[in-house]
Amino acid sequence: YLTKQFKLLNTVTGKRGTFLSFILIICVMIASIIAQKYAKQTSFTDSWLDSCPDGYDDVCKGNGAVYRFSFALVIVYVFQLFGTLIHVEFFDNYWTLKVIGYIGLVVGFYYSTSNVFDDNGYAWFARIAGFFYVILQQIILIDFAYSKNEMFLELANQEESNLPLNNKWLLILLLICFIVYGGSISAIGVMYWQFSGCNANNIILSLTLCIC
């Protein structure tokens, strides 16, 4: 059944594009974290300090790296939006060109000053748009989780045994639940460690942990 689902990525319009979009976001998140660390250690990013307050050079460099990765991703997805409106198959195809274009944008932005990306430009757009984007993603994730839960339960009901230990689909469902909960709690712990300088962050993280 799962093999059949993976094959659908290449046959059902939208599935392949959605999957590759998700992979791209994960890769960009990892690359942003790495770039944030290394941007503080190189003199190449000194040109990003135009409007940086005194004593905050490392913070400005780290944030500047993340803004550049994020802004490039926004441009790629806006381009993908208009491309899909013109030609629906654009969403699923041309991913090699999209990735090359994204890398080109990031490299180009690394040679740009921070006036476009700091608090006078993209940063405020990212904060406001990011808030609504997170809400939208939560709705999508909840809907995705419910649909996959129903899928696994239907598969479990087709098995001869309804006992969890004898039903592979129930075992898979339980395993996914443990992984997701464990990953969520671990991620919150990492955020406590990485973003401990702001009381508002700690309050929001604590509320999130209580809800989990």
Automatic annotation (TrEMBL):
It comes from the Eukaryota. It comes from Chromulina nebulosa. It is a multi-pass membrane protein. Its main location: membrane. Signal peptide: none annotated. It is found in: Membrane. The chain crosses the membrane at residues 20-39, 65-88, 95-112, 124-146, 169-193. Belongs to the TDE1 family. The lineage of its organism: Eukaryota, Sar, Stramenopiles, Ochrophyta, Chrysophyceae. Keywords: Membrane, Transmembrane, Transmembrane helix. Coiled coil: none annotated. Pfam families: Serinc. This is Uncharacterized protein. GO terms for cellular component: membrane.
